[in-house]
Amino acid sequence: MASSAVAADLIDFLNASPTAFHAVEEAKKRLKSAGYVQIFEREDWDLKAGNKYFFTRNHSTIVAFALGKKYVAGNGFYIIGAHTDSPCLKLKPVSKVTKNGFLEVGVQTYGGGLWHTWFDRDLTVAGRMIIRSRKDGSESYLHKLVRIEEPIMRIPTLAIHLERGTNDGFKVNTQTHLLPVLATSIKAELNKPVSADDSTENGAPNDGSKSTKKINPGGEQHHSLLLQLLAAQAGCEPSDICDFELQACDTQPSVIAGAMKEFVFSGRLDNLCSSFCSLKALIDATSQNSLEDEVGVRMVALFDHEEVGSDSAQGAGSPVMFDALSRITSTFSPDSKLIPKAIQRSFLVSADMAHALHPNYPDKHEENHQPKFHGGLVIKHNANQRYATNAVTSFIFREIATKHNIPIQDFVIRNDMPCGSTIGPILASGIGIRTVDVGAPQWSMHSIREMCAVDDVKHAYEHFKAFFQDFSQLDGKIAVDV
């Protein structure tokens, strides 16, 4: 498959996924189209060897797996793990801010974003809502994704004339500087809706006698203007919005760009690029008759909340991965001793984007470890276990690349710089599974607008697909604890 074709598919995935909730929804659509059957954690599982399944947790984490035709309980799991979340600005529980004649939206920072890149961008909101539904005299509450397509907010910068030292170092105050402007108070007042009693919301009744009827019980928490926009998008009344988790999103679409069309310009490459490549690799590596001789389970797990430490009910620090491994194993045998046996036969590729060498900042990289664009996936190493890679796991992943003539690179952080981390060490220590940390090289990590190379998208997809296809056979040739 050509690099441009894989990258074009990535662009479609990115543009459909402004939030972790939307990324999971897009993954669900692709999996169902490929013959995967949705199962539910609240129900019993009836699994059969040779079949393909997936489940979601919180609609922000998704686990998909395909059982080899020759799978038996106690055999290994071949897993690629990534994450669905990215640094962003999330709306506060009380987002209504009115200041100096303007309607602003209160937000809180999520993750370690490059917050100065959020200024002067055309922003909107997206996420999920809990909506009240009434039918036949009874109420139920629906989970619904929402996304306002057009730009409705902006965080304007201050003119240089009013802050002459800005170019010497702009320090963002995340509490006072990062409030998106939604509207002016005057325009919002003129466009207030008229309620059922013909009075304007929060205004005096037109006939001088009827009391004002609020448009939404949560109107004191959020601007009614914002609630109207959300309700129109969701096809409900503002009063039916019970709660929501929303975030500010850039409206500029992801694109293939550069003078030679060699780059991907987009938000959320960290880590939706890894999520997409692993998902596409799993789907293609489990199509047609590809599971006929497989003895293990091919799996992709895309977690929420990596950017804030993974400690949540749906993060990599939760039992979701172990729950999946144990439930699959126990479905085929009640013998609990087979679960640790299966774990020791398993392997995890922790896929999270890597830092490419920046031509304007070459001193930020260790001399012998400078990942470059077009150079393939980067194996991440850290002696202090910020990454879970060791000699055995890096050899396995590198050997697969060699067999398929796929380029591969290495990364070690400079000794005088702190090292980030991934879901790799969390899952390796929590479950006891062999792990290698890898990622495609990129620039502008945690910016509202990141970039990577088209070629590396293809390299990642091909490497992940080869991992699923080759691991069973390769693992049988490796002897360590003998």
Automatic annotation (TrEMBL):
Keywords: Aminopeptidase, Hydrolase, Metal-binding, Metalloprotease, Protease, Zinc
Keyword Nuclease in annotation: no
Cofactor(s) needed for function: Zn(2+)
Protein name: Aspartyl aminopeptidase
Gene Ontology molecular function terms on file: aminopeptidase activity; metallopeptidase activity; zinc ion binding
A cellular-component GO term for this protein: cytoplasm
Superkingdom to which the source organism belongs: Eukaryota
SUPFAM superfamilies linked to this entry: Aminopeptidase/glucanase lid domain, Zn-dependent exopeptidases
Pfam families referenced in this protein's UniProt entry, alphabetically: Peptidase_M18
One BP term from GO: proteolysis
UniProt KW Lipid metabolism keyword: no
Family, similarity comment: Belongs to the peptidase M18 family.
Family annotation (InterPro entries): Peptidase_M18, Peptidase_M18_dom2
Segments for region (Disordered): 193-217
Native source organism of the sequence: Nicotiana attenuata (Coyote tobacco)
